[in-house]
């Protein structure tokens, strides 16, 4: 009992340390983003202050339906187009800048890289790294080494920090899938620690860390505008992701937990619970693999990776702002030309009336 209490206290300290390091990482990541050429050049037009629309935006939804637009336009005494434009501008204000996204990617890249290298250092001399069936030799009486304990607690604290910060971080397209992934990972690590599944748990962590740092590095160069480096890293990430998540994970990890484990002990509740969580992770791997393959297909057709289908935002704020700017320019141009057009129409009418007056008089007689 004292050991689990000590582990809980240690985990709490690790989470606090993870938050501190993440906050301090901006001191390094922000100057680095400037060195690499990350610029927040997009001009964002601020939405006019409106209490009714602001309350609806924060308490109801950020993307109202047509009926809601119609109702809000009556409440605020505005046209429906003005209400739609207000919501577009308001959403643009909440979208994170490239600098913020770069700092987040830099922090994750740093952790995933260190975690992967640390995992290799911890496991490369272990027999179950080369032969997964060794995970069950002597189970459940398997000693917990100090290096494995630190590796486990550090990873668990990191995923706790990701889950606690998910509502404050950059909201991605796969937001729900990320939450499910973090919860499944935390339950998986916590249960495997209590059930002494630590050997196979370290293999799961290593397989996941093998490709994540490549994705984050590709994001960093994408925000910096280094297209060739970004595309090259993305293809390396794709190859590593598909091999580790769709080949190594099911053929080595799932196979040893489903079949090889039964050679050492009979299935119990923990066996089914542990494998169910692993299957949830595998389903998420398939989902993300489909998004990645779609990006590869776009690259083959269009010639370059347009954006991160796995984690980019749902809306393209650049297109919306360009549309608004274009619309404003056309409106201003039309307003400036309107007086001259009106004068020309009046002069043309007067000229036509004068020219047509003699010809119409005989007919009138």
Give a short summary of the structure.
The chain has helices spanning 2-36, 51-59, 66-76, 80-94, 98-123, 127-130, 146-164, 175-194, 198-224, 227-258, 269-302, 317-364. With 365 residues, it is mainly α.
How would you explain this protein's 3D organization?
With 365 residues, this protein is mainly α. The chain has helices spanning 2-36, 51-59, 66-76, 80-94, 98-123, 127-130, 146-164, 175-194, 198-224, 227-258, 269-302, 317-364. The longest helix has 48 residues, at 317-364. The model is unreliable at 310-325 and 357-365 (pLDDT under 50).
Rg measurement, Å: 30 Å
Distance between the termini: 117 Å
> Into which percent range does the helicity of residues fall?
over 70%
Which word captures the global form? elongated
What is the strand content? under 5%
Largest β sheet strand count, sense and barrel closure: none
Rounded mean pLDDT is 75
Spans where pLDDT lies below 50 across 5 or more residues = 310-325, 357-365
How many helix segments? 12
Structural class: mainly alpha
Number of strands: 0
* Order of helical and strand elements: HHHHHHHHHHHH
């Amino acid at each position: 009992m004292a050991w689990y209490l000590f582990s809980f206290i240690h985990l709490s300290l690790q989470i606090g340390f993870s938050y501190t390091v993440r906050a301090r990482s901006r001191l390094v990541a922000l100057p680095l983003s400037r060195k690499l050429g990350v610029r927040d050049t997009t001009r964002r037009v601020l939405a006019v202050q409106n209490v009714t629309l602001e309350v609806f935006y924060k308490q109801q939804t950020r993307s109202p339906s047509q009926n809601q637009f119609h109702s809000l336009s009556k409440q605020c005494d505005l046209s429906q187009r003005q209400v739609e434009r207000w919501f577009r501008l308001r959403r643009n204000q909440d979208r994170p800048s490239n600098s913020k996204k770069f700092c987040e990617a830099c922090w994750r890249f740093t952790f995933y890289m260190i975690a992967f290298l640390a995992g290799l250092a911890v496991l490369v001399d272990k027999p179950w790294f080369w032969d997964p069936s060794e995970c069950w030799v002597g189970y459940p009486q398997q000693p917990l080494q100090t290096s494995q304990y630190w590796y486990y607690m550090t990873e668990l604290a990191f995923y706790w920090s990701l889950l606690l910060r998910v509502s404050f971080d950059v909201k991605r397209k796969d937001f729900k899938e990320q939450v499910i992934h973090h919860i499944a990972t935390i339950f998986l690590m916590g249960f495997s620690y209590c059930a002494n599944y630590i050997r196979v748990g370290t293999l799961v962590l290593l397989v996941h860390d093998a490709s994540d740092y490549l994705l984050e590095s590709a994001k960093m160069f994408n925000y910096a505008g280094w297209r060739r480096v970004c595309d090259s890293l993305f293809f390396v990430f794709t190859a590593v992701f598909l091999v580790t998540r769709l080949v190594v994970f099911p053929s080595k990890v799932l196979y040893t937990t489903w079949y090889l484990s039964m050679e050492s002990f009979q299935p119990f509740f923990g066996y089914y619970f542990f494998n169910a969580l692993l299957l949830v992770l595998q389903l998420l791997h398939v989902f993300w693999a489909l998004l990645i393959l779609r990006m590869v297909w776009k690259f083959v057709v269009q010639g370059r990776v347009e954006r991160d289908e796995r984690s980019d935002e749902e809306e393209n704020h650049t297109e919306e702002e360009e549309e608004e700017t274009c619309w404003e320019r056309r409106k201003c141009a039309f307003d400036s030309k309107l007086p001259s057009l009106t004068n020309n129409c009046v002069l043309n009418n007067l000229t036509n009336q004068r020219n047509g007056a003699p010809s119409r008089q005989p007919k009138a007689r």
